[in-house]
Amino acid sequence: MAKNLSSTHEVQQPSLKRKSLKVIPTQELGVILILITLIAILGATAREKFLNPNTIFNMIRNFSWIAVAGFGELLVIIIAGIDLSVGSTMAFSGLISAMMLVSGFPVPVAVIGGLAGGLLVGLVNGLLVSKGHLPAFIATLGMMSVVRGIVYGVTQGQPVMKLPLGFLNIGRIDVPILGLKVPLPVILMLVIAVLMHMFLSKTIWGYRIYALGGNEQSTRLSGVNTGWLKILVFSLAGLMAGTGGILMTARLGVAMPNAALGYELDVIAAVFIGGASTSGGSGTILGVLIGAAIMQVLRTGMILLGIDPYWQNAAIGMIILISLMVDQLRRRS
Amino acid sequence: MRIGEVNLDQKTTKEPILTIKGISKAFPGVQALDKVEFEAYAGEVTALLGENGAGKSTLMKILSGVYKADEGEMFLNGTKIEPQNPHQAQELGISIIYQEFNLTPNQNVYTNIFLGREPMARGLAGKLGFVDSRLMRQHSEKLLAQVGAHFGNDRLVNSLSVAEQQMVEIAKALSVQAKVIIMDEPTSALGKEEVKVLFDIIQDLKKQGLAIIFITHRLEEVFEIADRAIVFRDGRRAGEVKVAEATTEQLIGLMVGRALDRSQVHERVAATQEVVLKVQNLNRKGVLHNISFELHRGEILGLAGLVGAGRTETARALFGADRMDSGEIYIDGKRVEITSPDSAVKAGLALVPEGRQTQGLVMIQTVEKNIALPNLDALSQHNFVNRGKTRHLVQTYVEKMNIRTPSLEQRVLNLSGGNQQKVVLAKWLASNPKVLILDEPTRGIDVGAKAEVYEIMNDLVQQGIGIIMISSEMPEILAISDRILVMYEGRIMGELTRANATQERIMTLASGQVLEAS
Questions:
Q1: Span of A126-130, A161-165, B258-262 with lowest mean pLDDT
Q2: Pairwise pLDDT comparison (B512 vs A297), residue with the higher score
Q3: Higher pLDDT, B130 or B218
Q4: Distance from the Cα of residue A179 to its chain's centroid
């Protein structure tokens, strides 16, 4: 007690110390090491091809939409749920934006339209879980199919092409920062990451989301409107997936009905590799960023190393399993 | 006052069936057990007492093979035993019934009794893994009769009451020919009537020559059922008494190392005539019927009754955790609509629920986060949580309530039961409620922590908070309450004042009888 009392008088010192320690987040240390190891291996084996700014920024550009959708997925996984509809939602949002652009809507309006589409899917997920009392797995499994079906139905299987340059630039423009050409999606991803990190770690909503994942009953009995909070979480997840979908569509330059097919697995893997717990209550935005980076480095690396593309998925699956098992071991010890 | 060890003549006349010699066990940072001795005799009930953290559970876990002792020896019937896992311990004849039952809720009674030890069918069928369910039923019927159970073999466990599930656990223990049965706080989830039934079973098991080790916090039960009591304190054996010759004060003295000043809970006159909460005709179909009562500022209103009488249900309906079908609630004379816990909190209510780990706390989160949770609105500006303000508030309550934690960043799952309960209290006190509902606030916490909780309650009523306390411990209800409402089958059977309340009167009302006019 006496120790605690005296420490309140020198709050300044320890808090400074704590901040400097936070630069190296212990929680994510494991995955950071895995990422560094991967990069080191690739750097050593395919030096010229791998270690140049072009390859690196291309890599980041390509994983930006997975990471952004992963931020939303993280929220759902923190509350011990899962969102299987992210891939479909990405395609859905991209399609809405593309169709609005082709019909002559200005770029900002079309982007907002696409985002609204993502938000809507998330809202429906949230209502199904919160008001319909469906398990998240079932609700989003159904919505994954419903939304993908809508995308196929509306397009009749045909891609939506000839998108205006103003929209394509979102995915293609490079912004010069400190002599480096940084792709716009990367900047957007980082900005969203910072905002989401603040949301999760500093706002009352973030506090409540972690608590909800840790123990729903206790959280509800602490006066938190948990039904509403779940709707918020799923809606945000939809919005993030929509954002990812628009970044992806702008980069690819075409809204394919089968776009982002199977991406839910990459997104979910990124979140779990990033240290989120399957039982809820934990996980960070930084973790998701690193998780998504690991996935992309693997994919790029295998291409650069000339590994048979038909075998790449099996390799990626195994690496996901290994990294999760390493994490389990670390937790238990 | 310290009381030394009482010498027992029994030791010389009888050989113990179970002897534990010089067992020690250390965990990082704590010496959980320090060279303890323990013995149990066939045909006897040995009570094991001690505050939380005294080492009772650790010893039982060593005995049942969950942990391995650092040093020391254990003998069963004179043979040295070293159980490596619970299964081995069971085969040796040591069964343990935990507070949390090890039953599979969606399966029937006999499947549970023989789980993992199913008798195989004869011949080829058995070799292919088919079980002999007829044999299983026959055996389990016998076992159920042995424990005096009146429910069928085919009932699903989740359709049984807690007391009935406990009978299944005991039958399971008997099915492996247990010689020693350890019961870890077996009465904590039972009502008075059910406890009686359990004690009858225990008496019966005694007669059959089993040694029962009975872990409890309720001292009156020790006097009712135990033959000897061994008291642990801080990982050491503090003493042993022959129950027939012991007093409550003596046992408490051994447990805490000093005699508890019982008078402290009596000196309090804070109740006013001002009504802070008025409940009118609260109904919940099939559960609560026309519940009406008033609570005054500075009053502690005890809610007594047997398990299932509707006390917890009343608290939950009042707090908006369960829907009420009809009823009116007034706070400070104003009608409030309570439809969910958040509206209850806004109206000035707080509920410390019965299960602190499952409903009261987010176990994986820190002390700071747990205390902050219901108070986030007050601790934030523009929805951003003010960390400094939060830490200041939490620190204040940690000191005020003497919560023993190494830091505010400690996860609550690492705290002892009593300290966890104080965290639950702290999180609600910080919200400045007008009415505090406490559901079994001292269940499963040690004597020292109990006294602290009473003291906190005293402080609160002095500040004018109205408290509703649900408790199954009769002495607690009698000592703490200003007024007592007794419930039976979802109705309020009667009201007793502090002056005219007695155990007999409460029991009469709680079993559905009307008090005779005296």
A1: B258-262
A2: A297
A3: B130
A4: 28
Query: By the CB < 8 Å criterion, does B345 face chain A?
Result: yes
Q: What is the pLDDT of residues A172-206, one digit of tens each?
A: 888 888 878 888 999 999 999 999 999 999 999 99
pLDDT in tens, B76-88: 998 999 988 888 8
Measured distance CA(A150)–CA(B430) in Å, rounded: 50
Burial readout B4-40 (b: 16 or more C-beta within 10 A, e: otherwise)? eeeeeeeeeeeebbbbbeebbbeeeeeebbeebebbb
Of A210, A215, A223, Cβ closest to residue B363: A215
pTM: 0.76
Provide the pLDDT for residue B399: 93
Residues of A in contact with B363 (CB under 8 A): 214-215
SS (H, E, C) A308-324: CHHHHHHHHHHHHHHHH
Q: Any residues with CB less than 8 A from the CB of B233 and at least 6 apart, and which? A: B50, B51, B54, B254, B255, B256, B257
Write the DSSP symbol of residue A25: -
Domain boundaries, chain A: 34-332
| Residue A202, min C-alpha distance to chain B (Å) | 6
What CATH number is given for B261-348+434-445+464-518 in this structure?
3.40.50.300
Q: Which residues pair with B47 in a beta bridge?
A: B214, B229
CATH fold, domain A34-332, is: ABC transporter involved in vitamin B12 uptake, BtuC (1.10.3470)
pLDDT above 80: residue A50: no
Can you tell me the mean pLDDT for B149-178? 87
- Class in CATH terms, B1-93+178-260: alpha beta
Domains B1-93+178-260 and B261-348+434-445+464-518 agree in fold: yes
Nearest CA in chain A to B342: A223
pLDDT tens-digit readout, B361-394? 999 999 999 999 999 999 999 999 999 999 999 9
Contact A223 B341 (CB under 8 A): yes
Read off the amino acid at residue A270. Answer: A
Cα(B332)–Cα(A90) distance, rounded to whole angstroms?
A: 53
B21: helix, coil or strand? Answer: strand
| DSSP letter for each residue of B347-405 | HTEEEE-S-IIIII--TTSBHHHHHHGGGTTTTEETTEE-HHHHHHHHHHHHHHTT---
Q: How is residue B299 annotated by DSSP?
A: -
Domain ranges across chain B? 1-93+178-260, 102-175, 261-348+434-445+464-518
Give dist(CA B142, CA B11) in Å, integer: 35
Which range among A238-242, A314-318, B2-6, B209-213 shows the weakest confidence by mean pLDDT? B2-6
Q: Is the pLDDT of residue B25 over 70?
A: yes
Q: Could you tell me the end-to-end alpha-carbon distance of chain A, in angstroms, rounded to an integer?
A: 30
The SS3 assignment for B185 reads coil
Interface test with B, best of A197, A204, A222 (most B CBs within 10 A): A222
Q: Which of A1, A4, A214 sits opposite B365 (nearest CB)?
A: A214
